[in-house]
Write a structure and sequence with these properties.
The chain is α+β, with helices and mostly antiparallel strands. It has eleven helices and nine strands. The strands form two sheets. The protein has a five-stranded antiparallel sheet with strand order 1-7-2-5-8, with helices on one face. Helix 1 packs across helix 3. The mean pLDDT is 86.
Length: 264
């Protein structure tokens, strides 16, 4: 198992289409830098308005999506990473701090907070360097600068969408036997209204969201040494077959293979 994963790219889209962007989760960290365009960013019920140079930090398992507000040319830098055992102690401590924040809280770091304005220099070094050591060095520097801004970031006001309470409820009850009927009864809404509004906001249905979050949790349990035949019950799946199919579809491998990968 490699102890350092990093993928970084700068992307330009001339005519962005809202349908190209959908809510998703992943089992690694993401640093997103907004360079140009007209958009907002949705993270677990919070909506962040974006300006040039703003950075968002997305934790593992945090559901997020871009919300294009006009077809203006759109440019961004995205860094996906997991330092695992390669990180120095300070960087690991910083990531632990971010992991401990509530979902959708403290994600946006406005460009104005970076005192020396070296954000793009760090990102360019991560993109262009051939050495993993150099990439990790500049990534660690950037993460440290973000951590230094944490007090200001946590005090920034955020815009909440209409489904913030629903999303909080889903995350609180992920491991329980949720049904669309029980969710609709809780929030006094029909199934058609629920899925229509949720999909318009996030690009995903409620059940797709729940399944994605359960699978991320399942992967974490497998990494911690839980057997696949026990994991599915702890993650809210009714049977192992449905869990197996969903897991393999999401991650491209079966649960047992990941269990062996992370524990042997």
């Amino acid at each position: 198992m490699s102890d350092f994963f990093l993928d970084c790219k700068r992307t330009f889209t001339q005519n962005p289409d809202l349908n190209e962007f959908y809510m998703h989760t992943h089992d690694f960290y993401e640093i997103y830098c907004f360079l140009s365009g007209n958009a907002k960013y949705f993270v677990e019920g919070n909506i962040y308005k974006l300006k040039h140079g703003d950075i968002l930090f997305i934790k593992k398992g945090e559901a997020h999506t871009l919300m294009i507000t006009s077809p203006t040319p759109y440019e961004r830098v995205v860094v996906n990473f997991d330092l695992l055992g390669a990180a120095d102690n300070k960087t690991r401590d910083i990531l632990t701090f971010f992991d401990g924040l509530a979902l959708g809280r403290g994600n946006r770091f406005p460009f104005s907070m970076f005192k020396d304005k070296h954000w793009l220099y760090y990102l360019d070094k991560i993109i262009s360097s051939e050495s993993d050591d150099i990439k990790q060095l500049y990534l660690s520097i950037l993460i440290n600068e973000m951590y230094e801004c944490r007090g200001e970031v946590l005090n920034l006001p955020t815009e909440r969408d209409d489904f913030s309470d629903l999303i909080a409820y889903l995350n609180k009850h992920l491991t329980e036997p949720l049904t669309l009927d029980s969710i609709c009864s809780k929030f006094y809404i029909s199934k058609s209204q629920l899925n229509r509004k949720f999909k318009r906001m996030t690009g995903s249905t409620v059940w797709e969201y729940v399944t994605a979050k359960r699978l991320i949790f399942a992967k974490e349990l497998l990494q911690q040494g839980e057997a696949p035949t026990k994991v599915y019950m702890k993650c809210g799946f009714n049977d192992y077959t449905s869990f197996f199919r969903a897991y393999k579809s999401e991650f491209g491998v079966c649960p047992k293979n990941d269990f062996i990968k992370y524990n042997y």
